[in-house]
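Hi Q.,

Before the meeting this afternoon, I wanted you to have the NAP prediction in hand. No need to reply - just skim if you have a minute. The sequence and ligand are here:
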Amino acid sequence: MSLPRRADLERLYAYPDPTDPWVRLCFVTTLDGSVAGGDGVSGSLGGEADAAAYRVMRDLCDVVLVGAGTARAEGYGPIAPGSVDAGLRERRGLRPVPVLALVSSTLDVPDALLRPEVIVLTCAAASEQRRAEVAARADLVVVGDETIDWPAALAALADRGLLRVLCEGGPHLAGTLATLDLVDELCLTVAPTLVGGSGSRVTRDAPDLDQSFRLGHVVPAGDVLLTRWLRERT
Ligand SMILES: NC(=O)c1ccc[n+]([C@@H]2O[C@H](COP(=O)([O-])OP(=O)(O)OC[C@H]3O[C@@H](n4cnc5c(N)ncnc54)[C@H](OP(=O)(O)O)[C@@H]3O)[C@@H](O)[C@H]2O)c1
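Predicted structure with the ligand bound:
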């Protein structure tokens, strides 16, 4: 299989120079639109090409935003300094390692992620006791009462200098951001497999939407398609 050259991926996935938060959503789906493979998670989809694009997207972002459901299902850990290209990040003026920002309303978050450098975004509906426990171990940001106030959440990230957002899902989080029209682009890998079943689509529990995107790129890599779609707001 021919993988795109690393330099080409860096050019294709470059963020615009943001003055406001820019939300890139990245997903891999099967041909029949499922975000999970037969094993119930996404890691098995997309193969080497998706992994290469995913690494570049992490290398270029300020913050990885992820829902607690995905962090639990996919066994997320802290972002290891050795997992990103420190040289590239330095040349682009980025901090050495992207910040991880975890989204949860219950604060049922993996213990391994409760670290001072991890942001946990939540709302006031989370129990006071759990908020105190998490705040003692991580950078807890409480925005909104019953639900997370997303403009305030993105503003809190921007206050920390985190404008290039890479949202790695999952579908509930993507559904919320899409509903609020906060997704600036979708980087979607199409994996060459049919899985049937009842796997989620990219957005879940969103109301009917009618949002247009224009094609940024489509790159065939063997049987996999790497695509990028940019939101067209009128
Ligand atoms: N194919 C792909 O590229 C891809 C990418 C990501 C995930 N996935 C798959 O998607 C599945 C998980 O789906 P999911 O929909 O459960 O993922 P999710 O959106 O990451 O998780 C949902 C949970 O995250 C928290 N959350 C998400 N949005 C929130 C919001 N707006 N406000 C407050 N909390 C929010 C809540 O956590 P609390 O319950 O803690 O409040 C919620 O229960 C897994 O199978 C995973 O493998 C696939």
